[in-house]
Amino acid sequence: MSLNSAIAPSLLRNGWWEFSARLLSQRPQVIPRSQKGTHDELADIEGMLRRYHALKDRRREIERDMGGSLEWRELTQSKRCVIGTALHDANHFDRDTWSYQHTWLADALESFEMVLAPLIRENPSL
User: Residue 75 falls within a domain, yes or no?
Assistant: First the structure.
């Protein structure tokens, strides 16, 4: 299936809204947040790198508790760091698989919350 460039963004946006609604109704403890921070938060590159490396120092523990390996990337060009996971080979344009994808994503978000929140609470400098 080929989607033109005008339809694709709309379909993905609909998928995101459907996921957000499902998450709020089925797992209210996991709240989707924007990736965008405040100007002050974004300007604190040194603090972000310090927090990223503090978490990366505990990589084995975090990945064990998450149940698998994660992607750890320090993106110096864009001045950000990423700790993530991905559902590889997912077709985000296939509405028939959205339910599976949304469940997988909700599980991943919940795992990040359960694993990382206590680490951050016990070390406020993170």
Answer: yes
